[in-house]
Amino acid sequence: MTGWTARETAAALRRREVSAVEVAEFFLDRIQRLDLQIGAFLAVSREWALQQAELAQKTIDDGSAGPLSGIPVALKDNLTTREIPTTCGSRILEGHRPVYDAHVVERLAQAGAVILGKTNLDEFAMGGSTESSAYGVTRNPWDTDRSPGGSSGGSAAAVAAGFCPVALGSDTGGSVRQPAALCGVVGFKPTYGRVSRRGLVAFASSLDQVGMFGRTVEDAAFLAEAVSGHDPGDSTSIPFEPVSLEPVPLKGVRLGFPKQLRDSAIDPDVARVVDAALASLRKEGASVVEIDLPSIELGVSTYYVIAPAEASSNLARYDGIRFGPRVDGDGHVGTVASTRGKLFGHEVKMRMILGTYVLSAGYYDAYYHRALQVRGMMAAEFEKVFQEVDWVVSPTSPRTAFRLGEFADDPLALKAMDLCTVPANLGGFPSLSLPCGASDGLPVGLLLTGPAMSDGRLLGTAHSIESALGPFPAPDLG
Ligand code: GLN
Question: CB 153: neighbour CB atoms within 10 A?
Fold first, then answer.
């Protein structure tokens, strides 16, 4: 069953070749046997998973099954669940039991999915390596000395390791697509607003979006279809139908490669793998042209002003009074200060300080306001480019999976690696990473970004690309 996609599993369940409880037990056992070496999960609830599986089987038996009935799913631990704690990888939410399920969790339940557990992440999704989690690192299933990327490293590693066919993560600046690339799976970030953020613990609200992981594009689409669509409980939710894959033949598809990424920070081996993939797409009738996106080079600095600014405001709510544990101090102010001082990790504190700074009187115009202007300019540049090409393409990450600890002394270098992914968040565009080859045995991802609301076509194009490039293998974990 490890090799089965979510779609194949759904078909096998419908044909009664296997029961929902057998599927759940298979994956729970695999997690128990192998996750010690990966660390993808922060919590696994066997009991809850088996209850959901029994319920799913009943619906399969009585003909009322939903599209995902009996399909195991893992959730990044910044999506709220009443049944299991939601910690965001932070001590400040240790053991926290939210009072409501995220909208996507409600949708999964309606669709019949079986939630296996919660996956590891960088604290509050701030990071690109899953190393800033307060509960330990996650390891890359392709090489356990390496990072799976982040911040949704747990979900990406879980899918790559065959612990579940599909998983949800969140993508504020690349946190679904970058770990997908580093783990050799598909990662999809829909158009901002197509999936409700209700119950996605806020990091940078104008950029945050729930995203999907699968071994295939079809599976990512399958999951997207189940969890997307309008939610009146999120004021930024777009009143449109759920995302679903539209078939798109490759012949005539126009791909644009930003010339600014040609001789910049892309590792030559990664560039070679991506070029080879683009060459094979040309053979299938796609055209690849060079495009001009000057503001791409400003993306990372713009993102690292806007995201911390929003985070400094969003994370003000963790005061030791309303959520999670408390560290007593002198009076109210002292208690808030010691709780925040002791229970937030270094990266999160650094970002809150930075965010407060760029919003403070005297610096607001120089930093925050300016960043917003660049954001607008960048979105306009992309929209203009989308009149000439269908998709902007590039490597997802300038490098393949790096060693754990490699960036411990150089946090800026890790942030610089968000170069290719942040523009889609700043513009609200849909964007998808799919495996396109390997370098030294480590997966390389190809990133496709399209205009707002082109999600169905984006998935369809990615599906055709995946068929042209051939299936990507899974790592061998035993
Ligand atoms: N690496 C980026 C950051 O550290 C993106 C994080 C994300 O998308 N959640 O902010």
Answer: 36
